[in-house]
């Protein structure tokens, strides 16, 4: 009876080894949206890494966000209005309003609260250091590298505001 049980256990172990040995490498190695791929140097938009509307240039020392932090812009403004993230996490802003969206750090119209530089100094933001979309668009992602309370607004409609709290 012991030999029978040991044989069954051996067959199960061999089956698992064969299953994982022949599993597609793409499925094993491809990062999911929840995978920390901090060892890979990439951008939010790999087609055009200097496109400031795509967010920030990621370096191997700055991990990409493992948590999806999404703020939606609609006719009612930004939802959620306040969002809390950790240093190094990315917030993705998605426009579902049918109107223009241009996410910019306060104060309007300079957008200098986060970076300390004025709009004409940091746009286009090819270095990913300014919390500023720099142009109208339907999606914008930014990785927050500094802790603080960062107020923002829609530059196209400056009375629409929100807050990103980075801990």
The main sheet comes to: 4 strands, mixed
- Class by helix and strand content? alpha/beta
Our estimate of the beta-strand percent is: 25-35%
Under CATH, the homologous superfamily of one domain reads Cupredoxins -  blue copper proteins
Mean of all residue-level pLDDT scores: 77
Count all strands and give the number. 8
What is the correct CATH architecture of one domain? Sandwich
Which CATH top level class of one domain fits?
Answer: Mainly Beta
Descriptive overview:
- The strands form two sheets. The protein has a four-stranded mixed beta sheet with strand order 2-1-4-6, with no helix packed on it. Strands 3-8-7-5 form a four-stranded mixed beta sheet, with no helix packed on it.
- A hairpin with a 2-residue loop joins strand 1 and strand 2 (77-79).
- It has helices at residues 2-21, 25-29, 119-122, and strands at 69-74, 77-79, 82-85, 90-95, 103-105, 139-143, 148-154, 157-166.
- 17% of the residues lie in helices and 26% in strands.
- The protein has a domain at 52-166: Sandwich (Immunoglobulin-like).
- The radius of gyration is 22 Å and the shape is elongated.
- The protein is of the alpha/beta class and 167 residues long.
- It contains three helices and eight strands, in the order H-H-E-E-E-E-E-H-E-E-E.
- The N and C termini lie far apart (59 Å).
